């Protein structure tokens, strides 16, 4: 796995040179179980839900085609990477579907489910969920 970009904190804007995008993770709500319960979505026993808000700006001349949050993962204290969950909350909308045009920015929310006992260490973003290229990292 490539070396992560180090030292970034929530709110910092990081550029991904290979993808021609800039990404900012604004905040992480941990736990977010009450927001899921308010919409009638249960969280499995022994698990907790989380919400991350982020934005992506396309710095390239061509459209960015991957879903904006496809490569967003949470990393726990054991180094396990947790991908996005499929839930949708009306109060915290997901990223819109479709390409992000050159110079355009999009923002949205990504949902996660982690073991209740897991300690959250960092948020990572990679192009299309692949860890073959540079990894943008925000420490928590």
Q: Work out the radius of gyration.
A: 15 Å
Identify the CATH architecture: Sandwich
Number of domains: 1
CATH class: Mainly Beta
- What percent of residues adopt helix (DSSP H or I)? under 10%
Mean pLDDT: 92
Structural class: mainly beta
Q: How many extended strands?
A: 9
Number of helices: 1
Strand content: 35-45%
Element-level helix/strand string = EEEHEEEEEE
Low-confidence stretches: none
Explain what you see.
- The chain has 140 residues and is mainly beta.
- The radius of gyration is 15 Å and the shape is globular.
- Helices cover 4% and strands 39% of the residues.
- The strands form 2 sheets. A 5-stranded mixed sheet has the order 1-9-8-5-6, with no helix packed on it. Strands 2-3-4-7 form a 4-stranded antiparallel sheet, with no helix packed on it.
- The chain has 1 helix and 9 strands, in the order E-E-E-H-E-E-E-E-E-E.
- The chain starts with 7 loop residues before the first strand and ends with a strand.
- It has one helix at residues 33-38, and strands at 8-9, 13-16, 21-29, 47-58, 72-76, 81-82, 105-115, 120-125, 136-139.
- A hairpin with a 4-residue loop joins strand 5 (72-76) and strand 6 (81-82).
- The protein has one domain: Immunoglobulin-like (Sandwich).
């Amino acid at each position: 796995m490539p070396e992560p970009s180090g030292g970034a904190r929530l709110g910092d804007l990081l550029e991904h040179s290979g993808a021609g995008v800039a990404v900012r993770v604004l905040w992480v709500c941990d736990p977010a179980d009450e927001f899921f319960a308010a919409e009638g979505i249960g969280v499995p026993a022994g698990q907790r839900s989380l919400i991350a808000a982020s934005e992506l700006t396309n710095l390239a001349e061509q459209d960015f085609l991957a879903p904006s949050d496809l490569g967003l993962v949470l990393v726990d204290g054991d180094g396990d990477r947790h991908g996005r969950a499929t839930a949708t909350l009306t109060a915290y909308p997901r990223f819109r579907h479709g390409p992000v045009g050159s110079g355009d920015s999009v923002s949205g929310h990504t949902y996660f489910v982690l073991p209740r006992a897991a300690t959250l260490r960092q948020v990572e973003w990679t192009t299309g969920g692949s860890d073959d290229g540079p990894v943008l990292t925000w420490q928590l």
